[in-house]
């Protein structure tokens, strides 16, 4: 059995360690500079190193993950639709497969769509016509925001599509909400008597 809590923890730890390793160069990518009383961040690396880092980030942080997502999700969907469980009701099985397929496609599409503008803006800065002005600065900030929105949208997709996710969410966070309501009731009741 490969799907054990220990293996899950090992995988999660490995992913975090690799993420920290590959993103650690960005800790020295910028430096602070005082510009007319305002602190701004400016690139600390020379142009050649910054370009190489940004291209590597595009390849290893977008292209390869999109390829891996595409291949693994396609295999998962194919497995779902080719495996037949004779013990299950066909209509229920088909409904569940549709939901999982829809969730997989939405999550993959959101990753691609949310992160693509960020990488395109950076690549245009290096290889296209991208004048540095207020408009392009705002565009760069917006592309960052859209990229980070991906992490916010995934739980919403899971909640909309998966009953199990909603139940798990209520189980984990339900106690926190119930405790707040109970505390309010207890604090209000003595004041009323």
Automatic annotation (TrEMBL):
All residue ranges annotated as the G-protein coupled receptors family 1 profile domain in the record = 1-158
Regions that span the bilayer: 7-27, 59-81, 102-129, 141-161
Subcellular localization, as worded in the UniProt entry: Membrane
Taken from the record, one Pfam family name reads 7tm_1
SUPFAM superfamilies associated with the record: Family A G protein-coupled receptor-like
Q: Which UniProt keywords apply?
A: Disulfide bond, G-protein coupled receptor, Membrane, Receptor, Transducer, Transmembrane, Transmembrane helix
* UniProt topology in membrane: Multi-pass membrane protein
PANTHER family recorded for this chain? GALANIN RECEPTOR TYPE 2-LIKE ISOFORM X2 (PTHR45695:SF35), LEUCOKININ RECEPTOR-RELATED (PTHR45695)
In Swiss-Prot or TrEMBL terms, this protein is called G-protein coupled receptors family 1 profile domain-containing protein
Q: Which organism is it from?
A: Cirrhinus mrigala (Mrigala)
């Amino acid at each position: 059995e490969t799907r054990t809590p220990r293996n899950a923890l090992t995988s999660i730890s490995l992913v975090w360690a690799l993420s920290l390793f590959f993103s650690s160069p960005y800790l020295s990518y910028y430096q602070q500079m005082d510009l007319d009383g305002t602190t701004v961040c400016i690139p600390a690396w020379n142009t050649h190193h910054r370009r190489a880092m940004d291209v590597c980030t595009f390849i290893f942080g977008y292209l390869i993950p999109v390829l891996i997502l595409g291949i693994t999700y396609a295999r998962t969907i194919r497995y779902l639709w080719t495996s037949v469980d004779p013990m299950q009701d066909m209509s229920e099985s088909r409904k569940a497969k549709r939901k999982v397929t829809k969730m997989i496609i939405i999550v993959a599409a959101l990753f691609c769509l949310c992160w693509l503008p960020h990488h395109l803006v950076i690549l245009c800065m290096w290889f296209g016509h991208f004048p540095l002005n207020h408009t392009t600065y705002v565009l760069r900030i917006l592309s960052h925001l859209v990229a980070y929105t991906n992490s916010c949208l995934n739980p919403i997709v899971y909640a909309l599509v998966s009953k199990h996710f909603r139940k798990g969410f209520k189980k984990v966070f339900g106690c926190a909400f119930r405790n707040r309501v109970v505390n309010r009731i207890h604090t209000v009741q003595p004041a009323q008597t």
